[in-house]
Amino acid sequence: MKIRDRVIELLDEAFIPYPYLLGNKELSNDEKLNILPTESMLALEFVTSLEDEFDIEFEDDDLDIDFFDSIDNVNQRISILYEEN
User: Fold this and answer.
1) What is the CA radius of gyration of the chain?
2) Could you tell me the pTM of the whole model?
3) What is the rounded CA–CA span in Å between residue 49 and residue 30?
4) pLDDT digit string (tens) for 37-67?
C-alpha cells in the first residue's frame, strides 16, 4: 500500500469518534486535514497514528500549519522521514 493511501485511511479513522466535526457534509481529504489545527486532540491522535504506522518521529518544526494544508504535504514529509529510517 502506498504511503498516501494509508495516510488517507488513517485520516478517515481519526474522524470516526468525532462525526460531529464533519456534520452531514462529504469533505475532501484536504478539508479534513484543515480541521485538525483547530482540534488539538484530534490532531495529536492523527499525528501519533502516523508516527506509529510508519515508525517515524516528527519534530515540532515538521508540524506547522503547512503540514495540515494537504495530503500531498503530509505524504511528502512522511516519505522524507521514512527514507531516513
Assistant:
1) 12
2) 0.91
3) 18
4) 999 999 999 999 999 999 999 998 989 999 9
Q: Please tell me the number of Cα atoms within 13 Å of 22 on its side-chain side.
A: 19
- CA angle 20–9–4, rounded 5-degree value: 130
Q: In angstroms, rounded to a whole number, what is the distance separating the alpha carbons of residues 12 and 23? A: 14
What's the per-residue H, E or C state across the chain?
Answer: CCHHHHHHHHHHHHHCCCHHHCCCCCCCHHHHHHHHHHCHHHHHHHHHHHHHHHCCCCCHHHCCCCCCCCHHHHHHHHHHHHHHC
